[in-house]
Amino acid sequence: MRRNWSQDKYILAYRFAADAHNNQKFPGTEWPYIVHISMVCMEVLGALAEEPTTDGDLAVQCALLHDTLEDTDTTYESLKEWFGESVADGVRALTKDPSLPREERMEDSLRRISQQPSEVGMVKLADRITNLQPPPDDWTDAKKRSYLDQAREIHNALQHTSPYLSRRLTEKMTSYEGLIEPSRK
Q1: Is the CB of residue 17 less than 8 Å from the CB of residue 34?
Q2: Among residues 69, 70, 104, which one has the least CA distance to residue 88?
Q3: Does the domain formed by 7-177 have CATH 1.10.3210.10?
Q4: Would you kindly state where each structural domain of the chain is located, as residue ranges?
Q5: pLDDT of residue 27
Q6: Cβ-Cβ contacts under 8 Å for 106 (sequence gap 6 or more)
Q7: Angstrom distance (rounded) from CA 156 to CA 61
Q8: pLDDT of 16-51, one tens digit each?
């Protein structure tokens, strides 16, 4: 099978992300944050195996770097210098704008992602797939429903970017629904 991504570019982005997120923990665990990043990238690699016509390097690097602008002191200029403009633009699109009211951030991010190559949308689908694990014990059913509604919003906006990841996200949303008590009317 022919691969459409470079191991050297993967390793460069992985090391950059590991350094950038060095002291962060995955929320609700003692795991280093790089575990989350690795899981997102694994989902993208699974899609690339099924959909090899995409730009694998863009997808893989954006997956590994997707939280660097939002969660670390990494700058757009640094990403551009290390990985090029298309990767930096993709990561910026995946980054929620903190200057907007919280309720507008997802819509804005999805709009910006939709203006990028489909590989960037693949990363957002993969990120939500990874995040639809059993939620922390202190989450209310209302918070779980809200998170599931956001997953549906992401799916509706980006499902066209990857049939494989669209199916995976649909499966995860169905499983996640089972973690929420039915609403009583």
Answers
A1: yes
A2: 69
A3: yes
A4: 7-177
A5: 81
A6: 96, 150, 153, 154
A7: 24
A8: 999 999 999 988 788 999 999 999 999 999 999 998
